[in-house]
Structure formats: structure tokens, C-alpha cells
Automatic annotation (TrEMBL):
This is Molybdate ABC transporter substrate-binding protein. Keywords: Metal-binding, Molybdenum, Signal. One of its GO terms (biological process) is molybdate ion transport. Transmembrane segments: none annotated. It comes from the Archaea. GO terms for molecular function: metal ion binding; molybdate ion binding. The keyword Cell division does not apply. The lineage of its organism: Archaea, Methanobacteriati, Methanobacteriota, Stenosarchaea group, Methanomicrobia. Pfam families: SBP_bac_11. The keyword Signal applies. PANTHER family: MOLYBDATE-BINDING PERIPLASMIC PROTEIN, SULFATE-BINDING PROTEIN.
């Protein structure tokens, strides 16, 4: 009996040691994998929120050794973060202007810059309202609050102001405008009925059933999205892989699903 107990104890000890060994091996492998992994930070325009979240998910699945930290905000705000020294690897802007500013300051890798998507500007109103049926209706006395992005920092606001100027309406409605930080905030204002109308990108309007698209607003500008690697990035190879994914077949497919135009 004593011998049997010793055998059982020995077998149990071996089993425990085996489990511990497997755990330590897996832990070591996991630590090694983490040590070999690389992180990049991608700053992207707010209007890219939904599409870039999916792009990042699929990119990480294809590149398990690269972790992407996604930073979303208005293009102008992101540009100022970069100018202030924020550790960003990739910048995807909703405006050529903000990328041009960084380029002139030698803050991007010029050869990495690519245009990857295009969009359009639309006038929207809360769902169920019928006070506004065209751009000219914004000049009505009944319309008192019109939301648009801050033209100084949000490209969607600059495009809206330009469209209104081209239509000869800016001076008439300027006093009714409420500036938002980015296109997503404009969309929320209109969804909640806090304003009579707002200007957003077509891709953002298509994400909501709480608004109605009145019309597409002509703008004498190409609403195109450039992406580039930052000159100070310490992960340029991984960053280039991300840009290649965005501009490749899978990235284009995702962007098209969210309403962007790609070539």
C-alpha cells in the first residue's frame, strides 16, 4: 500500500511539473511575441472613424506582430497635435491643406504620401422635418441654427463655408452658424434636433437614420483624403505596411463599403 501511495504521489508530481512546464513555456513564448511586436499610432480624421476601425481590425489580423493605436479627431486638431510633438506614426487627413502644412515643415515622409479616398458634402436636417428643401431655404427667418465644423480646424467646415460662399449665402446665414469640433459633432447636433440643419460628409450622413439628406452641396474643391508617414516616426516599416493595406484591395473594399470613393 505504501509503495502504491508513493507511485501515485510520483505520478501526481510529474503531472504538476508538466503543467507548470507548459505554462512557463507558453508564458515565455507570449513574452517573446510581445517583445517582437511593434506598435504604431495612426491619427485619422473623424470622418474616417467607422471605416478605419474596421481597417485596423483587419490589418492587425493580417499583421499580428503590429498593434495599431487609433487616434480620431478633426484633421486640424490632429495636425496641431503633431506640430506640438505628439508621437504619431501615420496621419490620415480629410484635407490636403493640413497635410500640405506638415509637408512644408518637413514633418512627413513626402514619398509615403498617398491619396486614398474621396468624399462629398451634404446638407442634412433632422428626420421628419420639412422646413428645408434646398440650400436657399437656410436664409429663411424660421431657420436660426445651422451647424458646421469650425472652418479653421475642421475641413468639413471649410468646405461648407466655401460652398455657401459660392452659393452667395454665407453672409446671409453667418450669424446663424454654430461651430463644432468635427463632423461627428455636427451629426449629433442634427440628430438631436439641437439645430435646424448641418453640413456633413455623405459618408457620415449614411450612418444615421435620424437625419434626412436635403441635397449634395457643390464645392469647387476636391474633397480627397491623403495619408502619410510622419518624419519622426520610429516605426516607418510598420507604418508603410499600414498605408499599403489602406491603399490595397482590402482597404479599398472597406472604404467603399462605408461610402467613400476610391480609385
Amino acid at each position: 500500500m505504501k509503495r502504491n501511495n508513493q507511485i501515485i504521489l510520483l505520478v501526481a508530481t510529474i503531472a504538476v511539473l508538466a503543467v507548470v512546464g507548459i505554462y512557463l513555456a507558453n508564458s515565455t513564448a507570449s513574452s517573446a511575441q510581445e517583445a517582437d511586436s511593434e506598435e504604431i499610432t495612426v491619427s485619422a480624421a473623424a470622418s474616417l472613424t467607422e471605416s478605419y476601425r474596421e481597417i485596423v481590425k483587419d490589418f492587425e489580423a493580417d499583421n499580428p506582430d503590429i498593434k495599431v493605436n487609433l487616434n480620431l479627431a478633426g484633421s486640424g486638431s490632429l495636425r496641431m497635435q503633431i506640430e506640438a510633438g505628439a508621437p504619431i506614426d501615420v496621419f490620415a487627413s480629410a484635407s490636403q491643406k493640413h497635410m500640405d502644412i506638415l509637408d512644408m515643415k518637413n514633418m512627413i515622409v513626402a514619398d509615403s504620401r498617398r491619396d486614398f479616398a474621396r468624399n462629398s458634402l451634404v446638407l442634412i436636417v433632422p428626420a421628419g422635418t420639412n422646413q428645408i428643401e434646398n440650400l436657399e431655404d437656410l436664409d429663411s427667418e424660421e431657420i436660426t441654427k445651422i451647424a458646421l465644423g469650425n472652418p479653421e480646424t475642421a475641413p468639413v467646415g471649410r468646405y461648407a463655408k466655401q460652398g455657401l460662399e459660392e452659393a452667395g449665402l454665407w453672409k446671409a446665414i453667418e450669424g446663424k452658424t454654430i461651430f463644432a469640433e468635427n463632423v461627428k459633432q455636427v451629426l449629433v447636433y442634427v440628430e438631436r434636433g439641437e439645430v435646424d440643419a448641418g453640413f456633413v460628409y455623405m459618408t457620415d450622413a449614411q450612418t444615421s437614420d435620424k437625419i434626412r439628406i436635403v441635397e449634395e452641396v457643390p464645392v469647387d474643391a476636391d474633397i480627397s483624403y491623403p495619408v502619410a508617414i510622419l518624419a519622426d516616426s520610429e516605426a516607418k516599416e510598420a507604418s508603410q505596411k499600414f498605408i499599403d493595406f489602406v491603399t490595397g484591395p482590402e482597404g479599398k473594399r472597406i472604404l467603399e463599403e462605408y461610402g467613400f470613393k476610391v480609385e
